[in-house]
Structure formats: structure tokens, C-alpha cells
Amino acid sequence: MDYINIDKNNIDEHHICCALWSDKRNTLAASYKKAWMKDRFEDWLEFIKWDVRWKVFIEFWPAESMWKPVIANDYMMINCIWVAGKFSGQWHWDELLNMTIARAKKLWKKWLVVVSADKNIPYLTEKKFYLKHWFKQVDRHLDFVLLALNFDWDNTDNIKIIRNKWEDFDWLVIYYSHQCPFTEEYAHIIVEEAKNMWLDAKAVLLKNKKEVDKYACPFGTNTVYLWWEFLTHSIMSVKMLRKLLDKKLDNKN
Questions:
Q1: Are residues 85 and 25 in the same domain?
Q2: Which of 5, 83, 167, 175 holds its CA 20 to 30 A away from the CA of 142?
């Protein structure tokens, strides 16, 4: 068993990321993700996975093309590293990161940047993992931190999170991309539930990096705003929506 580099020539033959099973729901979700990846390969997207039908993978590409509102020219950027289940206690975390570092060096990049968080929040690898591997924090915005790994710590002024000014919609809006296979399903579930609660809502599919830089939070893949304020980056269930709305209303009162 070994690692596989997924590319345009073999993507249809392999399971990718989190849509694990072959039922209708997972197959549809995987099709969104794979279509998105096929369009990104020309921007040097790389996806490396352990040859198992499980969540053991890393996804990265040059920061200039990364679908996150981040400026980090000449860096490689990690979108997602995930090792789950029985594989999480093995060597895969370090091995996947080391392969990405080697790839960044080969392409003459200034090494790596990644969005993380101080604490364990959904879909992001905790900051302490990267600090253990000599990353340093270079910026912070909302619930997120931007970490970088390089040799030139006197020259990190040009590595930063874009502070976008969101003014598009005054109720609930979800900006999402197919970087995650399940955003399409949950975005529309949440919009319908919000409307059932007499809350005006809409879901907007992000189609390019320019739109991501304009509308998304540092996580990039999923951003929820309510009343002109950032609500969450999580791909919400109905239960989570109700909980967050109750908290938001309590704070307003």
C-alpha cells in the first residue's frame, strides 16, 4: 500500500476525501468535488492520498491560486490535511506534510502557509500540530490564524489574510464552493430551514478565486453571514443553525 497522486488522468478511478461510500448521496457529493478538482488541476492543485477508502489525504497548491482569501505570493498553501480513524495514530500526518514541503522546495516556493485556529474547530487542523513542525503565526482574523513555514522570518509582511468587506445581503447568506463535497447539499438544506423560520436566506456558489477573496472567510470553502456579521465557517446541520440563531438573538437582546 502506498500514496497516490491524484490527477486528471486517474481521478475517476479513485475515491477522494470525505464522500466515502457508493450510495446515491455520497456519489453525488463526490461528483461535485471531482468536477471542481478537474478545473483546478491546471492551477497546479495537488491531491495526495493513502491508497485506502478512507480519509487519509492532503490537498495543496500555490497560494496565488488557492481558494482562500489569503495573500502569500511564492508560497505553497495547504488547503486540507486529514487523517482519520484508525490511521490517525500512525505516521501519515508527518509523512503527508513532509511530502508537501518537498514539493514546495522542488517548485522553488518559499515553503508553506496554512489557515488554522487556536483551538480545535471543524475542518481545520489545530495550530499546535503546525507549531510542532516549526510554523509561525503571521496573521489573525476572526476565528482563524495564518501560519507560515520558511527561513526568512524578517520578510513576512506580505503574507496576510484579506479583510473582505461583506455588504451583499442583510439576512442569512451562505457562500460556498465545491472544495468540500457536501457544501451543496447542506447549503440548500439550511436556506430552506431558514425560510421556514421566516428568515430571508440565500446560498451563493463561489465560482472563482476572485469571488472567494471578496466574500469568503479565511476558511474559504464555506462562509455563513447573518445580519452583516460573520456567523460560522461550519457546514451546518439544522440543529446547529437553530443553536447559532438562538445565541445570536440572545446577544442582540
A1: yes
A2: 83
